[in-house]
Amino acid sequence: MKTQPLILRKDQERRLLAGHCWTYSNEVDTQATPLKSLEPGQPVEILSSHQRWIGHGYVNPHSLICARIVSRDPNHPLSPALWLQRIHDALTLRERLYDQPYYRLVFGESDGLPGLIVDRYGDLLGVQITTAGMERARGEIMAALEQVVRPQSIVLRNDTAVRALEGLDQKVEVVLGSPSDAIRLVEHGLEYTAAPLTGQKTGWFFDQSENRARLARYGVGKRVLDVCSYIGAWGVRAAALGAERVSCVDSSESALAHLAENAARNGLEDRIDRIQGDAFEVLRALRDEGRRFDTVLLDPPAFIKRRKDEKDGVQAYQRLNRLGIELLEPGGLLVTSSCSFHMGRDNFLRTVQQAGRRAGRSLQLLEVGQQGPDHPVQPAIPETAYLKTLFMRALPAF
């Protein structure tokens, strides 16, 4: 059966020809291609207004991003063979990078599979499908993952809010095996357990792994504060690097309980304190108590999820960083992150710098980290470069 054409308005193909894969609804010629006649997830051939062939993709007429290109080869439409090839290519990169099977296996657009995220925990795969096009091909994609990776278990973490934008339901499903909700992983010589069924995202944040490794270069001192600690990836790492006392702050009681288990697993439980509460409130309380730390780690959730949240989000980043800087000893290390794509690197650095001035400190930027290579950046798709981690030294104002 011939694939439905999706015809763009005049001069709307430039970004796609440069390598981006998203088409917005206002870029489609709705006279030539009535969007309402198409089904969510339906395969399409994207054409310019002059009938220039651009790529194979899928459509969702109910979404602002109404189409995504998956293949730029006319001879390779969406098919089981295409999924197999893309997943094989993704695995080849990760096996080149990592000697143990703990990483992000598929990173959506960057791996030519927009709408698909796969994290690997040894023999378990945590999968998120975020678009109607990938949901439509779900059976074929699961079969491809089984054939290429040979996992014992697959968990679908389709409980992310972004699915609502695509008109998809939200739920967690086990589609292969009978996995435990305590899966082992190893990162930089430390052993952790993550919760693939109930944890945040798919249970772990692989994107910060390379940045956590960088802590060893700078030293963490005796006293460390880990804010938005989740289940201890940063805090346990700091304790393993020699910190005598690590105070971990998170709003989730279950996450902190899991953190305690991960600390004990590595023989570090006597060095870690847990503080449950809102990050801003806890930081203010610590400041008022006169507490000081040699290293402050700030890894909050995204404060800017949409462009319209930018003003409030920038203010939140500034408040959090000011409070963190105020708790640092002179010469202390600040490691601060933003996973908001809409907060660009320069804007984030400027925001942290302003926070330093308001805290009465001068900051030195030592290094800028980004997501690890298992989250590769597609240069034509700036949205794939989202994580910024600043390593900074805080000194008295000068």
TrEMBL record:
Provide the protein's localization: Cytoplasm
Q: Which GO terms describe its cellular component?
A: cytoplasm
Q: Name one GO molecular function term.
A: methyltransferase activity
Where the protein is mainly located, per its record? cytoplasm
Q: Where is the RlmI-like PUA domain?
A: 6-72
Q: Which InterPro entries match?
A: PUA-like_sf, PUA_sf, RlmI-like_PUA, SAM-dep_methyl-trfase, SAM-dependent_MTases_sf
Q: Which GO terms describe its biological process?
A: methylation; rRNA processing
Q: Where is the S-adenosylmethionine-dependent methyltransferase domain?
A: 169-391
Keywords on record: Cytoplasm, Methyltransferase, rRNA processing, S-adenosyl-L-methionine, Transferase
Q: Which Pfam families match?
A: Methyltrans_SAM, PUA_3
Organism superkingdom: Bacteria
| Family label | Belongs to the methyltransferase superfamily. RlmI family.
Its name, as the record gives it, is LSU m5C1962 methyltransferase RlmI
**Lineage, opening ranks:** Bacteria, Pseudomonadati, Pseudomonadota, Gammaproteobacteria, Chromatiales
